[in-house]
Amino acid sequence: MLNFSTIALFLAATAANSLIIPFSSLTNKLIFKNGSQLFVSSEEPLATLQKIVFYNSVENKTAWDISQSSAGKNGQISEKIGYILPDDSQLSITGVDIRRIDGFVYVIAPEDVSTSGTFHVYDVKSRAESFVMKDIVSTNVFFSTYKPTTDASIPAYSAVLSNFNYPSTTKISIYYGEPSAANEASRLLFDSSRNNGNTKIQSLTIPLGNFYVKTSGGLCSFDIRQDYNPVTKSSALTTMGALVSQNYPNTEVDAMETNEVSFENPNLLNVTITFNVLLKNLKSLKITLFGPSNSEIFSFTDTELPNNLDSNSTSAEVTRQFPIQRIRFDSLGPFAVQYNLEAPYASTTAEVITTTRSSSGTSLLTLFGSLSLLTLLK
């Protein structure tokens, strides 16, 4: 729970500051600084959001008023329009248990508002909408729609990005959390520049309440919708993608999670696998490679990685070449992996990528083709 001093310190901070506050952390003690820009993302009904009021000496705005302000073209995802505070503002919450309400307040500090021309905010809806990059360089914050479920294997928040279209001159990077220059590399989930010339991006499932996408260098478009997609099919044999654990980077998870990557390699080709490991928050990790007849041919743990790793989340690269057929990741704590598939030979067989997740937290990613895993983040 944010207290008065925490939010006050933030709102009085210098440039390049922003903060995403879940509704459950809102209190009547919060004061928002004059000139700050507010965005509200929530699927709660009008009657509920009208009971959350931002008030100042000039006017009152309900959470509903702010959440509904958006603009966009037909078929394209609507960009949210932020509310710039005309004076220091306080929060009034009456007649509702804020701890049981879903939603977020996104605050941009006054010093950042004037320089946020290439900064955009969106709500992800259940229907697929098209995102088209508006600037040569842009930062795009997405809030996933809350969709409660009784199935523990399906996350309440999740978005699927698909049908990427961009030239090789464009770079696409995906991060968790709110945009900030501080320690941004440690929050990287996907980076299209780690592609060895490949520009085919698989559908990406991001099971998080919010994340942001940075684009630079050229045109870019993709479709986005609220969904959790355990099955993905592709006709491409050369592609890249990412696997992200639910609630990443939640550090309170104490259960061991197993993720497996397997693929057909009937000719037992020596496949080059490159891991770029980025240490952050993970308590333990073991990566095991399996070959013919499901035999273990190589394994290593996070404690056996190159010594150039440090507390500042420096990345290290590990490359191996084996006739592998399956890779298993045993992890304790948050887990994300970026992968790159490169076909070593021509094939007319369609690649099928299937991801399944059990209620115990096990994920299975089946790849038909040849594999080069690029980035594993911790």
Automatic annotation (TrEMBL):
It holds the Pfam family Glycoprotein. Residues 1-16 form the signal peptide. The keyword Signal applies. InterPro entries: Glycoprotein (IPR005071). Keywords: Signal. It comes from the Eukaryota. This is Uncharacterized protein.
